[in-house]
Amino acid sequence: MSQATITHAGSLPVRLVRLYGGLALYGAGIGLQIRSGLGNGPWDVFHQGAALRTGLSIGTMIIIVGALVMLFWIPLRQRPGFGTISNVVFVGVFADVALHLLPPSGHPVLSWLYVALAVTSIALATVLYIGAGMGAGPRDGVMTGLIRLGLSVRLSRFLIEITVLAAGWLLGGTAGLGTLAFALAIGPLTQLFTRWFPLD
Fold first, then answer.
1. Closest C-alpha among 129, 118, 147 to residue 17
2. Which residues span the membrane (predicted)?
């Protein structure tokens, strides 16, 4: 079976389940990482810093930043799809729901478990909703655009995460050992999951 066949296999309802399941998993991963108390993921260091500057919730800032990031799609010649718009709207919603439901970690072991689950969830969520073939998310559209220019998934993801981490830290977002673990692990894990859920 070819990679293209694997990527687009399934009826529309199955693809929608993959899309929205992936978006929900992504939001849950964001909530887990933040509740770990060990440092946010790089994008959420930025989202938190921007939220602190504006007084908005992190979920709301995720939505706003997602819409603005799509401007970078123009030079990368990326085209939005139904999944792209869904990502812009729903990841922030799911993240705020997760932050409301998840208790903060009160123990180092639980904190690191949160981080491990967060990174795994976000890596799997990324390939699930991109693999649904309905359009990449705004941030991952930048990643896939860089891949089309010749960069690997691992390298493109790493470069993006480091850039937004620096910007978020300057805005006042919280970074820590959990942030470092996220930045180092998200690329290899995303690459790993593409073996079972190939990207188009």
1. 129
2. 12-34, 54-74, 81-102, 114-137, 158-186
Specify burial of residue 107 (Cβ count, 10 A radius: 0-12, 13-18, 19+): exposed
- Cβ(26)–Cβ(125) under 8 Å? yes
Q: What is the pLDDT of residue 72?
A: 80
Average pLDDT in the chain: 86
Within 10 angstroms of residue 147's Cβ, the number of other Cβ atoms is: 16
Domain boundaries, the chain: 3-193
Could you tell me where the DSSP H helices lie in 2-152? 3-8, 12-36, 42-54, 58-69, 73-76, 82-101, 108-131, 138-148
CA–CA distance, 46 with 81 (Å, rounded to integer): 25
- Position 192, amino acid: L
Question: Please, which residues have CB within 8 angstroms of residue 105's CB and are 6 or more apart in sequence?
Answer: 35, 36, 37, 111, 114
Contact 126, 87 (CB under 8 A): no
Amino acid present at 79: R
C-alpha R_g of the chain: 16
pLDDT 10s digits, 134-152: 877 788 778 777 887 888 8
